[in-house]
Design a protein that fits this description.
- The structure is a single chain.
- By secondary structure, the protein is an alpha+beta fold.
- It has one domain: STM4215-like, CATH 3.30.2000.
- The chain contains 2 helices and 5 strands.
- The protein has a 5-stranded mixed beta sheet with strand order 1-2-3-5-4.
- Strand 2 and strand 3 form a beta hairpin.
- The protein is globular.
- It starts with a helix and ends with a strand.
Length: 104
């Protein structure tokens, strides 16, 4: 849990606001721009039939009104010491979404 709280703090810094949500229920009204994130499977490196290194994987969705925003690039730059990449961009409900994978 401490890792998730550290990640939450870093996402707040990277976004520049407190609009960061961990698996929010549908009843929560999101404020944009925001990041919605969740834990995914871990990437495991093995050696000698054991787990050598475990990299926790997180899925981030940046949601915003501006199609020309550079916030996603800023988030990737913020996590430059980790493996972080933009997977895809799409539009839904007149909002622009950027899916990002982060190993943190």
């Amino acid at each position: 849990m401490a890792i998730r709280l550290d990640l939450h703090r870093e996402l707040t810094i990277a976004l520049g606001s407190g609009n960061v949500y961990y698996q929010p229920p549908e009843s929560v009204k999101l404020k944009y721009p925001c990041i919605v994130y969740s834990k995914d499977r871990d990437r495991v490196e093995r050696a000698d039939n054991r787990h050598y290194v475990v990299h926790p994987q997180w899925n981030l969705i940046l949601i915003e009104h501006d199609p020309d925003s550079d916030l996603a690039d800023g988030i990737v730059d913020h996590f430059n010491q980790y493996c972080c990449s933009i997977d895809r961009r799409y539009r839904a409900d007149n909002l622009y979404h950027t899916a990002i994978t982060l190993y943190y």
